UniProtKB/TrEMBL annotation:
Keywords: Transferase. This is N-acetyltransferase. It comes from the Bacteria. One of its GO terms (molecular function) is acyltransferase activity, transferring groups other than amino-acyl groups.
Amino acid sequence: MTINVNDVPEQKRFEARDEQDQLLGFVDYRQADDTITFIHTEVQPAAEGNGVGSTLARAVLDQARADGFTVVPQCSFIRGWIDRHPDYADLVSEL
């Protein structure tokens, strides 16, 4: 399965879609200055177990890094993913 992740700023979320443009999951966020807060991650039940959540987490954190943002992982999924991938810990805000 091909998973494409794109920012949808008008909905303040990143979406994961398959090659047929079906929504597989999303990460809601808030952005202020140079900080992005990841609020909630959701994967569609039919897409669970296919790496959608991990693909979303890696994509949103890579984008945050590229944009120079610090991250507030309010979402428990994103926080847990960072805990399991310490190479992303430097993005986390010390708020």
